Amino acid sequence: xxxxxxxxxxxxxxxxxxxxxxxxxxxxxxxxxxxxxxxxxxxxxxxxxxxxxxxxxxxxxxxxxxxxxxxxxxxxxxxxxxxxxxxxxxxxxxxxxxxxxxxxxxxxxxxxxxxxxxxxxxxxxxxxxxxxxxxxxxxxxxxxxxxxxxxxxxxxxxxxxxxxxxxxxxxxxxxxxxxxxxxxxxxxxxxxxxxxxxxxxxxxxxxxxxxxxxxxxxxxxxxxxxxxxxxxxxxxxxxxxxxxxxxxxxxxxxxxxxxxxxxxxxxxxxxxxxxxxxxxxxxxxxxxxxxxxxxxxxxxxxxxxxxxxxxxxxxxxxxxxxxxxxxxxxxxxxxxxxxxxxxxxxxxxxxxxxxxxxxxxxxxxxxxxxxxxxxxxx
Length: 378
Description:
Layout: H1 7-24, H2 28-34, H3 39-47, H4 66-79, H5 81-101, H6 104-116, E1 121-124, E2 140-144, E3 147-158, E4 165-171, E5 182-188, E6 194-199, E7 210-221, E8 225-226, H7 232-268, E9 270-271, E10 274-275, H8 280-308, H9 314-339, H10 350-358, H11 367-376
Parallel strand pairs: 1-4
Antiparallel strand pairs: 2-3, 3-7, 4-5, 5-8, 6-7, 9-10
């Protein structure tokens, strides 16, 4: 067993941390307040190779895997979780899906553009009536000459407003049990009939756009099918395993930011003649935050490593996401508590961390969904 990061993982970590410190952290609070999508930051991330991290080298990417992605995403999310989730969806739900399940033609068509940031990817599975019960999607795909015509509404789509390419799941056979007749399509945002619906006003991740995507008779050619017709739900579930590593990595990034801010504040703020970190109540909170952060990171890295080895890691991915997201929320609560009244104001970043943390227990499978997945695999 080897717990130290390899040289190439250290290089990814250091590069991502330098980028985060230079281009993300100084602007994160302002973008959050303005609810401004970080277009410039995403393009700079692409120029640094982060958007092409999981794209094979022959298509202009780095050809790296889940563990490299986890290390990178921790650094980005420790600075700005809105940028972090945008890149997480792009690399783990779109690029990795195409690299694993796409035809050579689809890979050649889209992966180079995804690697450079010419296109940013979005993942369109959720619908108004299909959240945790993802198999109950109703977006319909009707067979037409040369392809399919898609009609329906997708909801809670990260980067829906600004994406260039979407993975869309639609029902191609309604005469079978839910989940059995679903197909995955690659849909360009510029296709006729694609429009953006309601933009959500969110508690956290306010600089990340989350919208409805409306499909009104959108023609998609046969060559844009990912995998086989009626076999798309298996692709969705496999892809979500990787996506859960991405969100678990986001959770440990926010968690680490909470810990670092709390250590700094507790060492500087004095009450009753001594720093806060000299009080056992505060020092014990810091100890728990640090311990749970290490435990979460180990679970995330294990799941990522297993995926990179080509092993089935559904249980381990859900364990990582379950534990990391719960520990992150606890750390955010404790960080605000340590900061006291100051932590309840926008003067300190822990207020934003508290809001951003909440979603990690909800998307990519809510906490109890992870428990269901884990228990079914015991």
